[in-house]
Structure formats: structure tokens, C-alpha cells
Design a protein that fits this description.
This protein has 128 residues and is an alpha+beta fold. It has one domain: endopeptidase fold (from Nostoc punctiforme). It is 40% helix and 20% strand. It is built from five helices and five strands; from the N terminus they run ββββαβαααα. The mean pLDDT is 89.
């Protein structure tokens, strides 16, 4: 799993080779695409990075034990090429990459945003 920072968010993909990174949509840039046209695509590492620094996932010991074998990860990612159904909170590039690599659909960014929102709502309720 690889990622690049775009402003305040991360964009994720599955690294196959320098010639192939499979990702759910292109990294967000100016003039972002409408969710209904975003698809799983294969690009080069250069296209994926868009000039940003590419980072790899640092897995915990438990994640290393549970990870999908690399060849199967690539096969899963390739099987999803052309898939749509993008949703910023429930089906984004991070969900896609985690599902391919670890077999679990999740987004730490979404989890953090949800936590901040719940903390805000609780703080507002406590003020009353």
C-alpha cells in the first residue's frame, strides 16, 4: 500500500510496480471529479505521485500476520479495475487499498474525521 499527501489528506493506492499503481480514482487535484465518475484505475507511480513524496504502509506486527499475500493483493486490485461507487466517507481510495492489502475495508482518515465530529457534538451537548 502506498500513499501521497495532497493538501491535508492522503491518497492511497496499491503498488504493483513503477509502471502500475492501482488506485480508486486519481489523486485529488483542482477540479475534482464528481463521485459518480470516479473509478478504480491503473497508473504509473509518477502519475500516482503527482510530484508528491510516495510513502509505503508501515504495518503493525498483527497487520503483517493478517495481510493478504502480495500476489493475491495485486490480483484483488486488478480485479477491481473499472469499479465505481466512490463515496468519500464509506468507499474511498483508502478503503480500497486496505481491503486489497489487509482484507478489511477501512479508512483511518474517515475514522479520525468521525471521532473529531463526535467529540465536537459531545462538546456542544455538554455546553447546554
Amino acid at each position: 500500500m502506498v500513499r501521497v499527501r495532497i493538501g491535508s489528506i492522503w491518497h492511497y493506492g496499491v503498488y504493483v510496480s513503477d509502471d502500475e499503481v492501482i488506485q480508486f480514482g486519481y489523486p485529488p487535484r483542482e477540479g475534482a471529479e464528481r463521485p459518480e465518475v470516479i473509478r478504480v484505475v491503473a497508473t504509473t507511480i509518477e502519475e500516482f505521485s503527482g510530484g508528491s513524496i510516495v510513502e509505503t504502509l508501515t504495518m503493525s506486527g498483527l497487520e503483517k500476520l493478517r495481510r493478504v499475500p502480495p500476489k493475491k493483493t495485486c490480483a484483488i486490485a486488478r480485479s477491481r479495475l473499472g469499479d465505481g461507487g466512490y463515496d468519500l466517507l464509506h468507499n474511498n481510495c483508502e478503503h480500497f487499498a486496505y481491503e486489497c492489502v489487509l482484507g478489511v475495508k477501512r479508512s483511518e482518515q474517515e475514522e479520525e474525521a468521525r471521532k473529531r465530529w463526535n467529540d465536537y457534538v459531545k462538546a456542544q451537548a455538554d455546553k447546554k
